[in-house]
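Input for the complex:
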Amino acid sequence: MSPSSRGILRLVLTLGGAAAWILIYLNLHAFSLWFTYRLLGLAEGRHLSSAVEFFVFEAPKVLLLLAVVVFGVGIVRSFFTPEHTRRLLAGRREAVGNGLASLLGVVTPFCSCSAVPLFIGFVTSGVPLGVTFSFLISAPMVNEVALVLLFGLFGWKVAALYAGTGLLIAFFAGWVIGRLRLERWVEPWVLELTQPREGSADEREPRIIWKDRVRFGLDAVKDIVGRVWPFVLGGIAVGAAIHGYVPQNFMASIMGRSAWWAVPLAVLFGIPMYSNAAGIIPIVQALLGKGAALGTVLAFMMSVIGLSFPEMVILRKVLKVPLLVVFASVVGIGIMIVGYIFNAVL
Amino acid sequence: MEIKILGMGCPNCKELERRVRKVLDEMGVAASVEKATDIKKILEFKIMSTPGLVVDGRVVSSGRLPSPDEIKDWLRGAAA
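Predicted:
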């Protein structure tokens, strides 16, 4: 096939895909009703039928939203390479730098397995330590998959609260770490590497055209949605079960609003647990459904994705133990404050 | 041809190595494939995100998992 006809084919496929997406999305509710009451012939008003209806409506809805958001985020991320972000952050003063780093953490491609080279790349080119931490905290914590799932299952308010407080924690925790002047607890060999690194990797940055950005987006959908869909379906199935069958308020006594110690305990339990954002949602859903307070559950979720033991082990290569302890404590305290505020307000 | 795969052992790094070896097999080209897992070694190539792919001393990709077609293009370019 010639390059131009391949381009046309791609355009047709893209437009067709978008049209199919909209058509399916708009008809999901009607489909779920048809599927539950016509095709399966379930009686209305039963636990089972409302659970089936919930699942048949929510599962495709969340997967469709997820595909679109991951695609969009993939395209946005093609504009931000770690090298580019580093240039934006180098030499920034505190506060402004922390804010910028928290925001860039959301849009810059990042995998916790790259935390060490990224940390070194930032610190050695003049990004302040606290600003680097703001980035490292926000990147895993404010996660697009979690955002979509929270939006799909609990509504936009919970999703917005999660994203907003995640950014605030990254901002303040990074700022506090910067104020504490903890450079002495960075492994000395890292700081010795300080040297002008311009004209190295930055120069080789290839020129990207739109076709490539779309491909990045599609790759991200294939990669991320391909990995998380079982967790998503599991989460919605749990949600459907809770939706259909009346919840026993079994968690209310231990993780309810009145138990003050629930929030710190949730954070502590969250640290050794390591899961991707999609994997944690089924648990979140189950806890909420059984009467746990939202702030406590959110604290647990943030602790699981934002503070992970494996990431600490990776960062130990460049940071001494006291700095890791400070890092975990500051972020943990931030998460606890968020948990308490949510429990108090909502 | 000398190929280096830069990465500290993340799943994507292993997948990249698998793809490179597969492409090499298909092309029937002899090449040495080496893995650099030590952080200081990786930093010598001045990349900030892994996995990185180095062909004959030149970083062709970093921070993402390239497709087999892309890998083929780079290897073909280096073999020519």
